[in-house]
UniProtKB/TrEMBL annotation:
EGF-like domain location: 32-71, 112-150, 157-195
Nucleus listed as a keyword: no
Family listed: Belongs to the nephronectin family.
UniProt entry keywords in alphabetical sequence: Calcium, Cell adhesion, Developmental protein, Differentiation, Disulfide bond, EGF-like domain, Extracellular matrix, Repeat, Secreted, Signal
UniProt record, GO biological process: cell adhesion; cell differentiation
SMART domains registered for this protein in UniProt: EGF (SM00181), EGF_CA (SM00179)
PROSITE patterns: ASX_HYDROXYL (PS00010), EGF_2 (PS01186), EGF_3 (PS50026), EGF_CA (PS01187)
Compartments, record wording: Secreted, Extracellular space, Extracellular matrix
Primary residence: secreted
GO molecular function term, any single one: calcium ion binding
Name of the protein: EGFL6 protein
Coiled-coil residues: none
Amino acid sequence: ATCGHGCKYGECLGPNKCKCFPGFTGKTCNQDLNECGLKPRPCEHRCMNTHGSYKCYCLNGYMLMPDGTCASSRTCAMVNCQYGCEEVKGQVQCLCPSGGLQLGPNGRTCIDIDECSAGNAVCPYNRRCVNTFGSYFCKCQLGYELKYASGRYDCVDVNECVANTHRCNLHAECLNTEGSFQCKCKQGYRGTGFDCA
């Protein structure tokens, strides 16, 4: 079976027919499924959609149980955590919904960890890191665009000369380069290529 457009988060079952992995949807399985919007709702109190999955949280005064339900916890109610808490050996500790968040100085609210500036992010050589609240993603470097070719997604050079997105002077030639472009004044003109006289 071949799928012309590929199955980003799934497998190809028949001609252009993808079977998506859990948590993903779309014709090519390239869209995240928002489980929090499903009926019945997967969480008793609060739900947070994540890439390919979701996480449940309880309102203040409740604790998340192993089966996903919320049980009353009077000690948790006193702490007033942003995303719920857990009790370990009688000690109450606030929780953060993802590894990209950490407890703030007050011990109750969660603050974002910038994986890009901290150097924790791993992106392929031709992609740049973009921080998000609680996580990050890898985006193509400027001058490149994400394309599906040879059975996978990759960042390929944008030919600014063909796409006509260059800023070369009317009297200059556009020369495409890897990830960028250059402008060269035509014969009989002098200048930077952006300005020719």
